[in-house]
């Protein structure tokens, strides 16, 4: 593995935000690894998630591949932007099915990212997870989604605590977006007010700053990304 500007692993590297992260860090001459159900051609290495595996099996498979790829190297950062969305309240016929899907997409990925961080993150590295502003309160129209995202908020706090298991001086943070400006969101919500949608470039720049050890938030921060009139503010929850 050639020495480059730094090393980062993007969990959810084939999604819109993950792909944007990989493009940006590659443009800065960083080594970038991707973890996803599909490979990202831009990444230096792609680890494929086996969707039909159990939680433990996924962790084991992914950790073995990370070990093979990194050898003795450590990571400057791990960005977990894996996730998805499904709606429904307790009466919905797919209530449990959707809740299980949300748990797998968001909580499994976040905890496995934390497991990787515990072993392969540098001492002053950072792990960023993805929660949701909506999950700071009740989410009756999308209970499974809110449940999974609230769990990630809690996970972030635990990892940032003294005995959370991450390397010394490392940072665990969680971004809490509202709506991201992605091609899929534009497709499914053509009449929405996109001036309140957060651009992917804004988030990628945040990650890039933290990778440079600049303007890092307090360990354990839950950062709400509030966009109004195309201007995004970062507000700690």
Task: Note down, in words, how this protein is organized.
With 237 residues, this protein is of the alpha/beta class. It has one domain (7-236): 3-Layer(aba) Sandwich (Rossmann fold). The protein is built from 6 helices and 10 strands, in the order βαββαβαβαββαβαββ. It has helices spanning 16-27, 55-70, 95-120, 143-160, 183-188, 200-211, and strands at 7-11, 31-36, 45-48, 75-80, 121-130, 171-177, 180-181, 198-199, 222-228, 231-236. An 8-stranded mixed sheet has the order 3-2-1-4-5-6-9-10, with helices on both faces. α1 (16-27) packs across α6 (200-211) and α2 packs parallel to α3. The mean pLDDT is 96.
